[in-house]
Amino acid sequence: MTPRDDVHALPPAYRATREDLLGFLPEERVICDPLRRLALGTDASFYRLVPQLVVRVRTAEEVARLLGAAARRALPVTFRAAGTSLSGQAVSDSILAVVAGAFRGARILDGGARIVLEPGVIGADANALLAPYGRKLGPDPASIGACMIGGIAANNASGMCCGTAQNSYRTVESMKLVLADGTPLDTADPASRAAFAARRPDVVEGLAALRDEIAADPVLARRIADKYRIKNTTGYSLNAFLDYRDPIDILLHLMIGSEGTLAFIAEITFQTVPEQPHKASALAFYPDVEQAARATMLLERAPVAAVELMDRASLRSVEGKPGMPTGLAGLPPDAAALLIETRAADPAALALQIDATLRAMAPVPTLAPVAFTDRKAEFERLWDIRRGLFPAVGAARRIGTTVVIEDVAFPMMHLAEGTVALQRLMRAHGYDEGIIFGHALDGNLHFVFTQDFATETEVRRYAAFMDEVCAMVATRFDGSLKGEHGTGRNVAPFVELEWGPKAHGLMKRLKALLDPRGLLNPGVILSDDARSHLRNLKPLPRAHDIIDRCIECGFCEPRCPSRDLTLTPRQRIVARREIARLEATGEDPERRERLEADYAYLGDETCATDGLCATACPVGIDTGNHTKWLRSQRSGGRGAAEWASEHFAGTVAGMRGTLRAADAAHAVLGTRLMGALARGLRAASGGKVPLWNPEMPRASAPVARPHRDGSPGALRAVYFPSCIARTMGPARGDAEGVEVHRAMSSLLAKAGYDAVFPEGLEGLCCGLAFESKGFLAQADAKARELEEALVAASEGGKLPIVFDTSPCAYRMRKVATRITALDPVEFIHRHLLPRLSIERVPGPIALHVPCSAVKLGLTETFRAVASACAERVALPREVGCCGFAGDRGFTHPELNASALAPLRGALPEGCAAGYSSSRTCEIGLSLHSGVPYRALAALVDRCASGAAADVALASAAGAEAEPGS
């Protein structure tokens, strides 16, 4: 279970602070074991600091008390949201306060014109809430699917389309703050503002004095104004002193981009921006980056939402990837491209904007005619080029090196010259594989390269490069050393170079005013150490082929069902790398053994191996496959697995017998006594006995093999009832539930299909149950056996083959080479619905798409089938993988409970049932939602009555969808 904390290994000040924290926080939220301190303390940057304490905070009051406890012993505190920051803003060697997993409150105001968010809300989730209103957040960082509101605000994140007009600074309306001394402030509440002024007059007066000092210095004021004509996140947001008079309003805007160094953002209200429904994109090719930059300058006044520049190295890095446009490989060696997007409220306006854009860019010749497309599939393919750049470098890097992504901005008049100068510097310092791309419309460029920090020679090379880049950008072109990624640790020593001594001195006074003891995120934004950006560099040692490509960006984390329980995929990889490093060096064997022991529960036992991490990973890493490999290295249970594989019919019969016995006991004892007995047995066994729950299925009835018509021309399909379907029937309390194999057989018959079953059905299995436990040889043997039977049954693949359980279909789709296994909902949508007449059920239903179907890209197919059968369909965004993971819902029920914690509150009012396509998932979903979940095939069968061509899909098109689903 959860590892013990190393309390006695803590330095005395931290040990005493931990005791203070336990006075108001539960022990499980004050973490000091070595594995989780390392794993939870890692962010997306190339810096590594290991905190002494990791504290999971859930309220502003807890933050205030934490700051008070830390201040009593002068211990620094760093706030952490998603940890996707690239500049080292979210790492600490002291106390790390983690908001992820909490602070998820969100409220829509004024019909979507404003939104109130807590710092733990993921940016994409906020946009999903706003989508029904035709609105979105202004900031649109590339990491919006993983980064959280706290980080978006604290780093003044922007992105490809928001520029400087719609970034966090321009769209923030109010905040709730907690200052370093615990003082609260709600900038939207007049009473709170007055109370703050009375309690902290030093802050109010100090801010007013800085404001007046700047106003009295026209040269300084003009310097500040000029610095924010382009993107700039270097240092503090000094423009707040020019843009606002009231000290509280100044403080509010100083918090944007403050990177956790001035106060804690407990809540933020943003003004939202319209989400234009009509879009068109074009990819324009130019002879070189200078010409592309010249064209960008012409587009500055055109009706465009985004202009992304990509140099030849960028295009080369993705030209061989699947789905890329043809012709990239044939471009000249110095070519560059602009990816241009325009957006409008209606098609007519879009057409006018396309014409205006083409006229604006016409004076700069292109290598080929420019053509805009408003087809979503086509323009998404163009944007896939841009999205793939950073991952492409990460995937191709040499093991042991890290990916560095730096971020600068030039005044538009210097964009062309600055881009060429940056190219030359990269080549001069040996970064020939580096790429340059970015938000050209804002003069904002990213340059990405790989760097080895393992040797002093390589560190010196990086240091020399950074010195020259900073001098070139800040001195020669008066640009921004950080356009949108925040100052962090890697530019903190260069803030004075960019801003000059006077403005830098003002920033230091501001920091001292709000954090006089320097305890909030020290070393970030401001640093007196000229080499601080070269210290505490993160090692990335070789660990395993599956995970060595990981760049630790954290994009995977929102998809992981164990993220609020134990570790995420990124954190598992961090831990495995450290274990591998210790094993390779022979250093500290006692520490390595401790990490391995703690990893057993944190990393292995609570990994659902669902593979959804790979769907969000920029380089496609499936950490679940690594977990399966680790399990395969253990020798325990291999004999039993071999026996079960060879006697699978008996194994299935035994499982049915166990379910019958459990159901009989349930019938005699009742739910309450049965639950108490189950909990007692599990406790007595030390957690080794699986935990029964009231949704435990009864044994399934035998699979009926209906008489086949056999007439010439009759439709036929091979139907494989999975071992789960052959074993598990509905739960005792589900009066409407039916076995999924009965529903599938009925549906096939209604649609006029004869079901063909493979020979030796009872002994067949796809091998998934073996694979998930690490018995890979047995898994593959069962899959080969099943494939042979399905090849024969389908007459060599001539007949369609349908499974009734999504995970089994996915596994066979992945491993079989001679057949194509169809997911049950995919088969229903493609083959059955056009032949059925459907009568919808009233009221809302819930839908859950299993991980396997998500990976097959079937989410919209599930929605279409459900919408054909129900008037309203809710697909809760808050829930991803259910965490049941085969049998882990019984062996590690806390994983399922944690993954589904948001489910009950996410269901629409009046929802009486849910549907999925995985019997084990349905057990956990029923348990934690309070409504029965059944097979979606059963709902279709209930709604279907006889054969009638082309009826159901037409009715599905008019279905009402839940907002944000």
Primary descriptors:
single chain, 965 residues, alpha/beta, Uridine Diphospho-n-acetylenolpyruvylglucosamine Reductase, domain 3, Vanillyl-alcohol Oxidase, Chain A, domain 3, 4 domains, 6-stranded antiparallel beta sheet, 5-stranded antiparallel beta sheet, 40 helices, 30 strands, 42% helix, disordered C terminus
Question: What would your notes on this structure say?
Answer:
It contains 40 helices and 30 strands. It has 4 domains: 276 residues, Uridine Diphospho-n-acetylenolpyruvylglucosamine Reductase, domain 3 (2-Layer Sandwich); 208 residues, Vanillyl-alcohol Oxidase, Chain A, domain 3 (3-Layer(aba) Sandwich), CATH 3.40.462; 184 residues, no CATH class; 128 residues, no CATH class. It has a 6-stranded antiparallel beta sheet, sandwiched between helices. A 5-stranded antiparallel beta sheet has the order 5-6-10-8-9. β5 and β6 form a beta hairpin. With 965 residues, the chain is an alpha/beta fold. Helices cover 42% and strands 14% of the residues.
Taking Cα atoms only, what radius of gyration do you get, to the nearest Å? Answer: 30 Å
Overall number of structural domains: 4
Number of helices: 40
Strand content: 5-15%
| Corresponding CATH architecture of the largest domain | 2-Layer Sandwich
Main β sheet profile: 6 strands, antiparallel
Order of strands across the main sheet: 12-14-13-16-17-15
Find the CATH topology of the largest domain.
Uridine Diphospho-n-acetylenolpyruvylglucosamine Reductase, domain 3
Domain 4Fe-4S ferredoxin-type: 539-570
EC number: 1.1.2.4
InterPro entries: 4Fe4S_Fe-S-bd, 4Fe4S_Fe_S_CS, FAD-bd_oxidored_4_C, FAD-bd_PCMH, FAD-bd_PCMH-like_sf, FAD-bd_PCMH_sub1, FAD-bd_PCMH_sub2, FAD-linked_Oxase-like_C
Cofactor: FAD
